[in-house]
Design brief:
heterodimer, A: 246 residues, mainly alpha, Arc Repressor Mutant, subunit A, Four Helix Bundle (Hemerythrin (Met), subunit A), two-stranded antiparallel ribbon, 11 helices, 2 strands, B: 233 residues, alpha+beta, Beta-Lactamase, 6-stranded antiparallel sheet, 4-stranded antiparallel sheet, 5 helices, 33% helix, elongated
Amino acid sequence: MANARATTSRARSAIFAPIGDEGRAVRVENRLAEAIRSGVLADGDRLPSELELAQMLGVATVTAREALVSLRAQGLVVTTRGRGGGSFVRAPDPGDVVKGRLATMSRVELRDRASLYQVVLTGCAELAAERAAPDEVEDLQDLLIPLDGDDVGRWRDAESELYLSVAALTQSARLTREVVRQEADFGTLLRVPLSESDFRHASAARHRALVAALEGGDVAAARGSVRDHVTHAVERLTEIHEVVRP
Amino acid sequence: MNIDVSAACAARIEQHFGSILAELERVRAEVGALFAAGPVTSDALIAQVETGTLAFLQDPNLLGGGFVVAPDALADRRLYLAWWQGPGRDFLGEAEVPATGEAIDYTRQPWFRVPERTGELYVAGPYVDFICADEYVLTTTLPVYAGGRMVGVAGADSSVETLETMLLPGLREVGATLVNSHGRVVVSADPHLATGEALNDVPAEARAGRLLSVVRRSADGPGEQMTLAGWPS
């Protein structure tokens, strides 16, 4: 707990560190918006006043004000007047967070992240197929959701856990830590299309193929099923991206 | 036919790359004269190009730029990059192999090699540049000569991300794709055509030797891609 607090306060001081000369309202806005979306600044947290914020970030008061106006317009900050008033963080809905992140991303960045994710996960699938013991693979069956399940959150969690388990089956702590990072960074985006039932069904088939390949120690098939899945998900995500980006 | 819209898109390309070309020609004259006047040290080169380059790099749509010397053109160094890049416009100097610190020989890079061979303006990429910016970029380079030999290339980097933001709205209006001189996609209205992919049905003659072309599948039937605009025009 003490540890978690230390990370949070380090993250907080990074947010409030001085911003460079070229930093203007947009950079202040992006930094605060990112902190709110990632939860470093929690719902209900009071933000420093315009004047304090400007001093902390090393920008003009008018720049801090401009950033706050825009954060208010995005619904990430609410300002109340009078005694006990001020600007407060309004944490957005988790689904909106992911779509919000997607909207701020360029197509090139999306593909860049997807490439890294795909290479790491297909590599894990190969090693896992080589190294996993039969009883270890058996446990993965529990992560295959019945096709008629329509709890999207459960599908997302199960897929993430499946891929993390595959990473752990490589017996490499470094690879597993990398996948944990990838899951936090890109996994949440990759799972946006799971809200569509056709996509869920196609995903389920690929995940079943993956588990079967791991059971059979089939390196090429394990790799292929992860590759198919990531490719398909990225294709669908790219289409969603076209719609959500401004 | 949306000629006006494609003209607007072409104008945006001309505005960006045209201003790069004007700067590279300015550097060519400046650096060419410096080398023609006698032996040049790295310090003298920096003193000559820094102010002008940094003024040019005020444009936030540029990732970096400067002058890169040909091997042994300088009196005191074999390889050198008088190059400024990134949000802080940091000076590069020498590019090193990560971990070993050895100087990287950049002369095999297309942005150096192609203009060296052709003697002409070139747009390299899209490629991931691990020598300068560690970013996904297009590099525009122009060879610079003094005393009958190439003394280096003047160049500027544009990030693919910046070009996407700048050009995608215009390309979408006409459903077109910007390709490089090899027919590789830079930015496309079609989200499934990723940057770097080869567009196989662009006939080489449609690009007419241009460094950048805006192409679109012809409206009647399953025809080939036709060129709407090109750069340099």
